[in-house]
Amino acid sequence: MREYFRELERKQFEELQEKRWSQGTIWTEDGKTGYDYWIKHFEEGSEYGIENDGCISKLSIRKHGENKDLVHYDREWIKRVPRNKEVQRVYNILVEKYN
Is 73 exposed, middle or buried (0-12, 13-18, 19+ CB in 10 A)? Predict the structure, then answer.
């Protein structure tokens, strides 16, 4: 019986972890360039979140099909948002949705 509850708790934990991660691609208005993102977010803000009290604890943005991070946040800034208007637009969309 204990094994059943341990397995149930493990599955619930994994489902919760999956809910915290989101990923996708945001395309420019002309549809020519895409930006892939991976984001870990929570329901409540934290001191480790973006903007010092945000719900986003991890974020990566890359140009679609490339392996180089344009933006990287992992409880602190590793690579800040560049001055590129397209990347700033993607970042703002994500912060508005998840933070």
Answer: buried
SS (H, E, C) 8-56: HHHHHHHHHHHHHEEEEEEECCCCCCEEEEEEEECCCCCCCCHHHCCCE
Helix, coil or strand: residue 66: coil
Owning domain of residue 89: 21-98
Domains: count for the chain: 1
Total-model pTM: 0.79
Average pLDDT, the chain: 86
Biggest alpha carbon distance in the chain? 57
